[in-house]
Structure to design on (494 residues):
């Protein structure tokens, strides 16, 4: 069947269902009532009567509601499977002797697969032992004008992503992802609370973008008659809070980056950022490991997670730590240091056909590291000590010239989080911003601009601080093995 034919069929079914809606209204009933007298959830009814033998009448009367996901009409007895939002189901049995001739006829004429339905009656088990409600009264809770997809066939990825509501109806895995995400986020909030952190909210509309190297979305404020940027990171505002004396802070919220989209990147994504005064990138690494491991325990009861394809992945124990320059040198078979000339790095990249946009020495080092070392990582691994020229907000290494105290955490072969010993010297920070502005003037769309307000805040004195940034969507990827579009409830699609 072609897409065009399916569209015609859907249109025809919609017209038929609109007719049923009209009949309900003519009878003085409501197709979309303000409420129905629900007394119990389907799951609660099932839990109270688990293990009943076949053909039992409990004597308990309940009122439940759910979506019809299976419908079978026979002569004097009709059956419907009602599904609650959490996927729990119960059978509704509508019989002539219980509801009467007119109600049974109305059921057959006006009830469709996909309708939201309320039923009340006695809880029983059928002759086959299926927990059921022997319906005494029923009413439409919401008339479905469009038919459900075939619930016995797998939905296409396109349908799942574009019509997530259908995905949630049809696929337990889709509902499980929402619960897993909620559980993981609640776990992170609990971990922060136990450590004395405060949760903050910082601006999403900013007069100047900053806090990361990324291309921003630009919008316009009519009230202020000025261009604004959707934030690429909350970093510079959270650091202002630390300057103000809020020494342990975090935020879980949305970031927006006007860049590519693939299996690990989305233009709109959820981000966790946190800052802790009197910590450094080693302390933040320990915090990050605890956050991820506690989330795994909350979701699945173990630090060994099972992905949707059945693969087990161990997030437990102490995670590996490697340094960028030594690991790159070993893998490439040639010593590469912060002093390696740009020409040598460019020549090596050219031989490997690695292209580097807006090339500076640090970008070559990072691209070469991704080529040689990244594919070899299997366990969760902190990659430490990055080039200074790609890390404008990070403190210089306390003992190694030319690098900064930054790590990236790799899990499942992708970057999950990054951590810094934060740069708190306003004089050095200004120098770094000036260099970024030079790169921006040279055409680098991801380079930062000079943020005078942030620099002014630093000049009031920011204590030694460690910072963390972690993608919430990517955390779910690490816990479930799914791609980023499956971990986001309503991803942006073209």
């Amino acid at each position: 069947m072609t897409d065009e034919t399916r569209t015609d069929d859907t249109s025809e079914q919609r017209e038929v269902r609109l007719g049923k809606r009209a009949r309900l209204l003519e009878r003085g009933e409501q197709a979309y009532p303000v409420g129905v007298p629900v007394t119990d959830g389907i799951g609660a009814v099932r839990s109270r009567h688990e293990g009943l033998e076949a053909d039992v009448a409990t004597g308990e009367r309940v009122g439940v509601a759910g979506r019809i996901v299976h419908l079978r009409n026979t002569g004097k007895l009709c059956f419907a499977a009602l599904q609650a939002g959490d996927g729990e189901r119960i059978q509704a049995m509508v019989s002539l002797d219980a509801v009467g001739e007119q109600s049974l006829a109305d059921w057959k004429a006006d009830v469709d697969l996909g309708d939201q339905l309320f039923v009340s009656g006695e809880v029983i088990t059928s002759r086959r032992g299926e927990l059921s409600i022997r319906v005494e009264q029923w009413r439409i809770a919401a008339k479905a004008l469009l038919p459900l997809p075939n619930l016995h066939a797998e939905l296409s990825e396109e349908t799942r992503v574009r019509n997530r509501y259908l995905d949630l109806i049809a696929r337990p895995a889709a509902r499980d992802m929402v619960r897993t995400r909620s559980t993981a986020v609640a776990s992170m909030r609990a971990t922060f609370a136990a450590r004395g952190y405060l949760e903050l909210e910082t601006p999403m509309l900013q007069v100047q973008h900053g806090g990361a190297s990324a291309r921003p979305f630009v919008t316009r404020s009519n009230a202020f008659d000025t261009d604004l940027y959707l934030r690429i990171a909350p970093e510079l505002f959270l650091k202002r809070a630390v300057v103000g004396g809020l020494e342990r802070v975090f935020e879980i919220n949305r970031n927006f980056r006007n860049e590519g989209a693939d299996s690990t990147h989305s233009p709109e994504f959820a981000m966790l950022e946190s800052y802790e005064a009197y910590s450094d990138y080693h302390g933040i690494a320990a915090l990050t490991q605890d956050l991820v491991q506690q989330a795994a325990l909350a979701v699945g009861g173990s630090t060994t997670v099972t992905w949707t394809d059945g693969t087990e992945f161990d997030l437990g124990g102490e995670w590996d730590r490697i340094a960028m320059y030594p690991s790159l040198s070993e893998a490439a078979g040639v010593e590469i240091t912060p002093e390696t000339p740009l020409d040598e790095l460019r020549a090596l990249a050219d031989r490997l056909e690695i292209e580097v946009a807006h090339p500076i020495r640090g970008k070559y080092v990072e691209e070469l590291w991704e080529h040689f070392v990244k594919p070899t990582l299997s366990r969760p691994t902190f990659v430490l000590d990055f080039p200074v020229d790609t890390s404008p907000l990070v403190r210089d290494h306390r003992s190694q010239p030319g690098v900064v105290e930054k790590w990236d955490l790799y899990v499942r072969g992708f970057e999950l989080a990054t951590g810094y010993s934060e740069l708190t010297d306003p004089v050095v920070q200004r120098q770094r911003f000036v260099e970024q502005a030079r790169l921006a003037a040279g055409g680098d769309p991801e380079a930062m601009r000079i943020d005078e307000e942030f620099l002014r805040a630093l000049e009031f004195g920011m204590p030694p601080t460690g910072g963390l940034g972690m993608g919430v969507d990517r955390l779910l990827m690490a816990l479930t093995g799914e791609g980023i579009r499956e971990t986001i409830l309503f991803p942006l699609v073209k």
